[in-house]
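Appendix B. Raw example, untouched.
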Amino acid sequence: MSGQIASLSRLLDGVGRFMRLGRVSHAAAEGPACDGCDLVRVASYNIHKAIGNDGTYDPARTISVIAEIDADIIALQEADRRLGDRKGRLNLATLEKETGLTLVPLAARPMSHGWHGNALFYRRGTVIRAERLHLPHAEPRGAVLAEFDIGGRRLRVVAAHLGLLSRTRRLQMERLRSQLEAREPMPTLLCGDFNEWRPGRTNSPLERLSPLFQTANAVPSFPSRRPVFPLDRIFGWPDGLISDFGIHDSPTARRASDHLPVKAVIDLKSAGGLFEETLALPPRRQSDAGGGEILDGEADRLEHRYVGD
C-alpha cells in the first residue's frame, strides 16, 4: 500500500508541475493505463537474464517486478540468452496476463524477445515503426527503436545496452545521436543500461549525447542490493519532456536482478509546447527512402555476422 501511495504522490506532483506551467492535461479515453490524462509511464530494466542475486533463474519473479513498476512502455536489457539460440528469458503470455504489456516485434531470431538482449514492451497506443540499430562494438551490441502513436500523439523510444569499454561507449553514443539527428523530430526517449556513471568527467562518453540529450540527472541503480552507480538512465528530447525520474525500489526488485529498474513520467500533450521552445535539431544526415540513416560497410558486415549466420 505504501508503494502505491508513493507512486500516486509522484504522479500528482508531476501533474502539479505542468499545471504551474500552464500545461494542464485533459482526459484521454485509452483504457485504464491512461490515468485519465496524457501522462505516460516509461521504465528501463536490466533483468540480468532473469537470474537474481541469489543465483536463481526465476522469470516469474522478474515478471512480478515488472508488474510492480506498472509502466506503459518498458525497455528490458539482457532479455535473451547471450549465446546459442538467443532464446527469450520470459514467458510472454504470463507477462501480458500479469501486466498487459505486449512485445514490440524487433527480434532477429524466432525465439528471441529482442535484439542483442534489448526488448521493448508496450500496453498503450500503436507501433508505427520498429527497427534494429547497429552500434560499433568490441563485443556484440545493438539498440532498438520503436515509434508509437498514443492517442494521436507520437513518441519515439530507443533502448540500448552499451559496452564495457569507455572508448567503445563513446562511439556507440555518437552513433545513437547521429541516428536520431537524421530522423523526423518527435518526442524521443533514450533509455537503457549505459554502463557509464561519470557524466561530468573530461571526455565522458555521456557527453557524446549532447546537445540532443541533457545528461545531468541520475540516480544510483547498481548494484541493486546497495545502489552506488547510476548505470541505468532515461534521457528525453526535447529538454523538459521528462517530468519525473527515479528508481523502482522494492524487496523483490533488490533480489530479482543486479540492477534496479528506473522509471520516468512524461506528458505527451505538453511535448507540443516544448517543441516550440526548443531549437531545431542539427541538419539531418544522409537518409534512405524509409527515413533511416544509410548503413555503412561496417554495419552491413555486422548484419551478416550476427543475423545472417
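End of appendix B.
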